């Protein structure tokens, strides 16, 4: 009788450790470590390949994993694809920072990304005969909004820009996105949402405004660590 080979990829090698069906995905692997050490019990590390730390534990008795994804659509798309198709993850929640491009957004505000507009070409591989609207899982979005309301935390719900470009040589690009009602800019949600939609699983991006691009306001590294607590606690409650 053949024994089944343990599930692993060149990028994720759990060595037999469990990866839960619900996972939080910060870009920074050190933030994944912080979440595991601060909020989870009975923690087991399931990945350290390329420094992309991943952990599984329990939060209020529910199994939950957390893992870094790196920056940008290519990195997020690689890790989320493997988590979904190799390890069976069903609920993927990105938690990260964003740059606001609307006047009514302020530092530390939380954004639930209902939609993800993008300048990325990642979608071309799906070969859809038209323009696909990239959206979050309504189930996760609705739950996150209710959790925020119960905590008395104001959140903004709407469309965000998932961009491949951090340093844009066109200084007017974000102004044009702003005119279309885009709330803020980040770099990963489109790849996550597309992978989730293709596989029929759930995905949501929860963001904290770390800077306001037009007003040239920003949080320090220390302020980011503290102010991201509200976002992380909303995400943890989704487990």
Automatic annotation (TrEMBL):
Signal peptide limits: none
Binding site for phosphate: 27, 31, 50, 94-97
Residues flagged as site, Important for catalytic activity: 224
Enzyme class: transferase
Active site residues according to the UniProt entry: 211 (proton donor)
Organism domain of life: Bacteria
Binding-site residues, a purine D-ribonucleoside: 11, 186-188, 210-211
InterPro entries (alphabetical): DeoD-type, Nucleoside_phosphorylase_CS, Nucleoside_phosphorylase_d, Nucleoside_phosphorylase_sf
UniProt similarity note: Belongs to the PNP/UDP phosphorylase family.
Protein name as annotated: Purine nucleoside phosphorylase DeoD-type
Organism the protein comes from: Paenibacillus cookii
Lineage, top ranks: Bacteria, Bacillati, Bacillota, Bacilli, Bacillales
Gene transcribed to yield this protein: deoD_3
């Amino acid at each position: 009788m053949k024994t089944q080979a343990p599930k692993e990829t060149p990028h994720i090698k759990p060595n037999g450790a469990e990866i839960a069906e619900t996972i939080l995905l910060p870009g920074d692997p050190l933030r994944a470590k912080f979440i595991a050490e601060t909020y989870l019990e009975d923690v087991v590390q399931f990945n350290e390949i390329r420094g992309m730390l991943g952990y599984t534990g329990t939060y209020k008795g529910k199994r939950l994993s957390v893992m870094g994804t790196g920056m940008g659509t290519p990195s997020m798309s690689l890790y989320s694809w493997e988590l979904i198709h190799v390890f069976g993850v069903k609920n993927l929640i990105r938690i990260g920072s964003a740059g606001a491009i609307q006047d009514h957004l302020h530092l530390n505000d939380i954004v639930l990304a209902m939609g993800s507009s993008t300048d990325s070409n990642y979608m071309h591989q799906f070969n859809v005969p038209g323009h696909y609207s990239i959206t979050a899982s309504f189930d996760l979005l609705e739950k996150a909004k209710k959790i925020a309301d119960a905590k008395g935390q104001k959140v903004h719900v709407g469309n965000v820009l998932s961009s491949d470009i951090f340093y844009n040589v066109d200084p007017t690009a974000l102004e044009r996105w702003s005119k279309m009602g885009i709330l803020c800019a980040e770099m990963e949600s489109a790849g996550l949402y597309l992978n989730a939609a293709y596989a029929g699983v759930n995905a949501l991006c929860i963001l904290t405004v770390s800077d306001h691009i037009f007003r040239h306001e920003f949080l320090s590294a220390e302020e980011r660590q503290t102010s991201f607590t509200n976002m992380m606690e909303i995400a943890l409650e989704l487990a």
